[in-house]
Amino acid sequence: MTFTLPPGLALQKVDERIMTLNVGPQHPGSGHMRIIVQIDGDYIVACDPDPGYVHRGEEKMAEYRNYITNIPHLERPVIHDSCNVLYPYVLGAEELLGIEVPERAKYVRVIASELNRCIYIMYWLAIYGIFLGHSTMFMWPAGDRELLIDLMEKMTGARVTHAHFVPGGVRNDLPPNFEDVCLRQVNYFEKRIKEYAAVFYDNPILIARTRDTGVLSRQDAIRYGTTGSVLRASGVDYDLRIKEPYDVYDELDVHTNVMNEGDSYARSRIPWLDMMESCNIIRQALQKMPKSGSVRTKLKPNPKGKGLDSVYKRVESGRGSLGCYIVSDGKTEPYRVKLSVPSFRNLIALPNLLKGEKLGNMPSVYWSLNYWPVEADR
Amino acid sequence: MGTATGIIRALNSGIKHIATKRFTLRYPEEKLKFVGDGYQFDPSTGVGIAGLKGRHMLFHDHCTGCQLCSIACEGVAEAIAMVKVPEEQKQNKKSIMPQIDYGKCVFCGLCVDACPFYALYMTNDYELSSFSKEGLIYTPAQLQVKPYVAQDSEIQISDRGATHG
């Protein structure tokens, strides 16, 4: 009897020099995913990222819930960036259901989205710091993140997984006196993150560990279809807040940060610069926001689509362009919801980046991709 | 910038923090202050009122037993079950009211949005731990009680840094 194993499980011929090493899926250095690396001594000769460990079937679940009850579970893929991960779904559902959004709600959404972007980046920065062995850079972002989490808690009533955006606006209006508190805490937050330059970004030890490791050229960055900070660190000026402005981003003055090096250092510096840009956007939005008015269009209890229709919307999340494709067949539930996530697009560059690097450089290269395993697996 | 200068600058930046105040919140001695009285919803305008999404509060004299909160929870957590209550309310002919299982609840507040009779709100109570799974199931009688939540600490920002004052 002949017995053949499926391709993924087939035994590989072992070279005497090459050793196969499984990093993950339960290793703290990889998140919830496995990276199969083949090493020759201390050098990585091949690398095969293996996502899918935390697949939850979010897209299938969305087919059995109506447009409103989809909201709590669709923000679960990235709980720290939950407003941004829900944003394209809400924009798409509004177009499918034919709902107008009040002007004030659009500004509230932009503020929530930018606060969430900072919260996500601070969490990522804390992880990036601790995996480079820099424990101060773990403690400081984890602490300063609290300033913004406090704002989100005042605004939405939850510290993570806010469930704040709905088709037609946002769930509740801003609490009284929110603008002053927000301005004060965001200004202090910006002052704090500027202090990270001396302790982290200008630190010679960090520069020595991340400069010229995992270099992604401009051509490769475009060819692989990477997005967000990975793309901007390789010298491509691409940000959906400018290229395809949604809600009120066209009325705000948004600048992107671009670096040409394409190495781990550039990829780790771009999100930090993005946070300062987010602070600018929050200040502008607070200034331009209408001081009163409705924040939510009243919906019927079970909104229905207008027949066979589909829509694709995308936004710039904390990691890059995040798209949502919704097909409606005129029922209360969407026929199909597809999330096109930035983490999965950026991961495809990893085998190329790690080839020829030392194993000790793996955490700095891997985490610089701004990768979130749960989002990639959906 | 040389390596030595860079390291000295990094150390110097950290040493400055000896003089700044501590940011940590000393929970449970100190507790955070929240805006408002919990998340509420106004069905006439269709807009909520900002507040913490904590444990629910049920107003027995408003609840009609219409099960809309339970239906709203169906696709989310299935935490709400309608149970018989011994008391008789004029507006509640069937005498059924929601019972909430906090082992399942995700605190999204969609049940509050669904209630058209101002009967279900959320409160600032977030300390819901229990030694048993049954202890997390709150009956309509338990949900009627307004919780006491100590709130004393808020983020203060001064020249010497941010604190939970």
TrEMBL record, chain B:
Residues 54-85, 96-125 form the 4Fe-4S ferredoxin-type domain. PROSITE patterns: 4FE4S_FER_1 (PS00198), 4FE4S_FER_2 (PS51379). Pfam families: Fer4. Keywords: 4Fe-4S, Iron, Iron-sulfur, Metal-binding, Repeat. The keyword Nucleus does not apply. This is NADH-quinone oxidoreductase subunit I. The lineage of its organism: Archaea, Nitrososphaerota, Nitrososphaeria, Nitrosopumilales, Nitrosopumilaceae. GO terms for molecular function: 4 iron, 4 sulfur cluster binding; metal ion binding; NADH dehydrogenase activity. Signal peptide: none annotated. One of its GO terms (biological process) is aerobic respiration. One of its GO terms (cellular component) is membrane. InterPro entries: 4Fe4S_Fe-S-bd, 4Fe4S_Fe_S_CS, NADH_quinone_OxRdtase_chainI.
